[in-house]
């Protein structure tokens, strides 16, 4: 049955092949090497490729991106960018463009994606509360005003996703932690914990999704909720680590999202002190205080949990220090340049990407030699978010 | 209690200084002015938003400041606000620089 193709068909085939190879958007590619860098001054993001160590594309029009953060869809195709102006932008990582964008409040601080990837929650300062959206359409699914026990609407901080389609967050102005069970999406079931400690300012959830821990600005210590035993309530840990010590002025609030959980230890920034606190995870007792360069902002463990990288508050923010987890001592001090704002490890932790805002650069370091491999030009870079966050609880 | 009293003393001291020296900020060099503006947008912006429309800290736009007294604002910048995350900036800024920043806020940072 074999017969020769007519000559014009051969020409067509050749033409089609040329078109396909010439047009990069049609070439298949994966998203596992991709990430976003927030360019906070220009309201833009850049798609980066950690495989080729390069910037791939810039996307404009995302509004006020001071304090922006990102979560990813479970297929790593879409990024959800939470902007300060209440903007929620869904970015298509493959087509390199904005897929959808809404302004959902006046002033927001962060967001989370549900365990099953179906819901996006955004925490808002103004008006204080959490709004929940359909991850595909960005249609509003639920609105949770954060009216605290004091009857006032509170700013919401420390929003994370927890297993069983829950979102957990803290009320800054009324000292509460709320758990929203979203199994029935349009009817959130809220559990409220009161008097958790003064002014919770940020929070994290441990990698397995069990412990929710809020940092307290108004007093020493942290508020801990064990989601395996929610009926046991919130307990205070490290309540007296700074007792009797004069607090230093805090020029920038620490971040807890990147909290280092390394082996049996949790390493956390001390608020108002030049130290990193080491906590034993079995009993949540303080085991060591590691003196560092200045007030820590991010304290982040490398994926292999061997080292912990720390950056610092203004005006000492040109420095990164590296702590060896085996000895719990500072083993290196790096000077990436003015205003080091964020660090993100590649998925298996061989490199760390560092944003140096006032140098308009991302610097890429080898995690083990701690030498710079390359640097990439960016416009006032702040947060760096790689797509492997898609598969991590709480990120 | 102590902090309130000391804040009051500082306020009065602040007003005295202002009435005697006025709000002259002439000796701020252009270079330093650029640095201060950058600091307001980026570092004050960490809490107050880069557009100063508010964040964990309140909005600092000319509309939000309204007719709040400038000397109280100056005292807040230099000495912070006890009980809130607002830190004292007197370790990093001279009184004149803080004044320059207060003037900038009332004028509006955006050109």
From TrEMBL, chain A:
Highest taxon of the lineage: Bacteria
Gene3D superfamilies in UniProt: C-terminal (heme d1) domain of cytochrome cd1-nitrite reductase
PROSITE patterns to which the protein is assigned, alphabetical: PROKAR_LIPOPROTEIN (PS51257)
Alphabetized Pfam families for the sequence: Cytochrom_D1 (PF02239)
Record-linked InterPro entries: Cyt_cd1_C_sf, Haem_d1_sf, Host-pathogen_enzymatic-act
Official protein name in the record: Protein NirF
From TrEMBL, chain B:
Residue ranges crossing the lipid bilayer per the database entry: none
UniProt keyword rRNA processing present: no
GO molecular function terms noted in the UniProt entry: electron transfer activity; heme binding; metal ion binding
Keywords noted in UniProt: Heme, Iron, Metal-binding
InterPro entries per UniProt: Cyt_c-like_dom, Cyt_c-like_dom_sf
Domain of life of the organism encoding this protein: Bacteria
Record keyword Metal-binding present: yes
Cytochrome c domain ranges (all copies): 28-109
Protein name: Cytochrome c55X
Organism, scientific name: Thiohalophilus thiocyanatoxydans
């Amino acid at each position: 049955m074999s017969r020769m193709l007519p000559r014009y068909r051969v020409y067509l085939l050749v033409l089609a092949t040329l078109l396909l190879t010439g047009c990069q958007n049609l070439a298949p590619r994966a998203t596992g090497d991709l990430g976003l860098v927030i360019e906070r001054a220009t309201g833009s993001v850049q798609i980066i490729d950690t495989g080729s160590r390069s910037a791939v594309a810039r996307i404009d029009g995302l509004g006020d991106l001071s304090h922006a953060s990102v979560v990813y869809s479970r297929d790593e195709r879409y990024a959800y960018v939470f902007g300060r102006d209440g903007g929620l932008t869904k970015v298509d990582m493959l087509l390199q463009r904005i897929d959808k964008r809404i302004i959902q409040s006046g002033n927001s601080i962060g967001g989370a994606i549900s365990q099953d990837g179906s819901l996006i929650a955004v925490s808002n300062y103004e008006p204080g509360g959490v709004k929940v959206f359909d991850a595909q359409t960005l249609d509003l699914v639920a609105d949770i005003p954060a009216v605290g026990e004091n009857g006032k609407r509170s700013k919401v901080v420390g929003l994370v996703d927890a297993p069983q389609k829950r979102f957990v967050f803290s009320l800054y102005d009324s000292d509460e932690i709320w758990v929203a069970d979203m199994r029935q999406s349009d009817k959130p079931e809220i559990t409220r914990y009161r008097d958790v400690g003064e002014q919770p300012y940020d929070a994290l959830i441990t990698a397995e999704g069990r412990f929710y821990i809020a940092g307290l600005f108004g007093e020493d210590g942290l508020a801990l909720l064990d989601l395996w035993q929610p009926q046991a309530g919130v307990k205070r840990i490290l309540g007296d680590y700074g007792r009797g010590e004069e607090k230093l002025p805090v020029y920038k609030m620490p971040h807890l999202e990147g909290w280092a959980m390394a082996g049996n230890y949790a390493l956390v920034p001390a608020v108002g002190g030049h130290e990193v606190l080491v906590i034993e995870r079995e009993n949540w007792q303080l085991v060591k205080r590691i003196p560092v360069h200045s007030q820590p902002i991010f304290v982040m463990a490398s994926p292999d949990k061997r080292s912990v990288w720390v950056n610092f508050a203004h005006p000492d923010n040109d420095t990164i220090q590296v702590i060896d987890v085996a000895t719990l001592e500072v083993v290196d001090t790096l000077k990436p340049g003015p205003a080091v704002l964020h660090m993100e490890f590649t998925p298996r932790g061989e490199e760390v990407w560092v944003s140096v805002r006032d140098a308009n650069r991302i610097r890429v370091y080898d995690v083990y030699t701690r030498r710079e491999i390359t640097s990439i030009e960016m416009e006032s870079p702040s947060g760096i978010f790689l797509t492997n966050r898609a598969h991590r609880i709480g990120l | 209690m102590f902090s309130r009293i000391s804040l009051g003393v500082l306020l009065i001291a602040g007003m005295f200084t202002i009435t005697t020296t006025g709000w002259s900020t002439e000796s701020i060099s252009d270079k330093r002015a650029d640095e201060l503006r950058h600091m307001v947008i980026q570092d004050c912006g960490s809490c107050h938003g880069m557009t100063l429309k508010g964040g964990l800290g309140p909005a600092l736009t000319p509309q939000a400041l309204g007719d709040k007294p400038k000397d109280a604002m100056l005292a807040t910048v230099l000495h912070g606000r006890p009980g809130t995350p607002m830190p004292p900036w007197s370790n990093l800024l001279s009184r004149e620089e803080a004044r320059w920043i207060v003037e900038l806020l009332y004028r509006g940072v955006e050109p």
